[in-house]
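We give the chain.
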Amino acid sequence: MHPTTTFLACLATFLPLISAHGTLTEIRGANGVNMNGLSIPANSRNKNSIANTAIIRDSEIKSGRASPLGRTSGGGAVTAASALQAFSRAAGAGAGNAATLPTAADDGTVTVIYHQVNGDGAGPLDAAIDGTSGGTQANAFKTAQILQNVPGNNGRSSASNKDFTVKVKMPAGMTCDGTVGGVQNVCIVRVRNPAGPFGGAAAFTQSAKSRKRAEEFRKARRSEVAFTA
């Protein structure tokens, strides 16, 4: 094969990996507190940069190349600890204080912003929430319902450089019990599209009403099981 032909064939193979881009840039708490996505450095001049896109492939998570939050081309495996520590310091919160984190709404709805850079960064997204491990254990993530999604067909659409509001519902009965970077009562929400998969994750906690509702749901379920046993 001619060298030029070989080069073009290789380029065609890797082009989707280079151009496809969509990432979770921000979580917007029901308490009015907003926070960058976990793949977005606190000092990033452009949080929509391709370098901040999380590549979240199950095969790479299993092999250890990526964390359950994925990896970025700019920073490697994504972790939540350093982001939460920096956020807590900036907010003037003491160690272990989750009060300054964004919260889910009282009904357990989480609102995040997903930025689609080009046609290969589209939806529909899937979502999962980790209520226990702070994003460190793949099996801690539980499938979550998306109430408001990103349009697209198999990760592709005509949209580009556009923000989409995504709303994710916590699984019934889930409580935020993770500890991350010394901060307690943390949940991690993760979204990804079919094309890469590309996406990102964010940290949040629950309002008192949301937690009470989840605990009451679990108590009712235990009572049902005991009654039918």
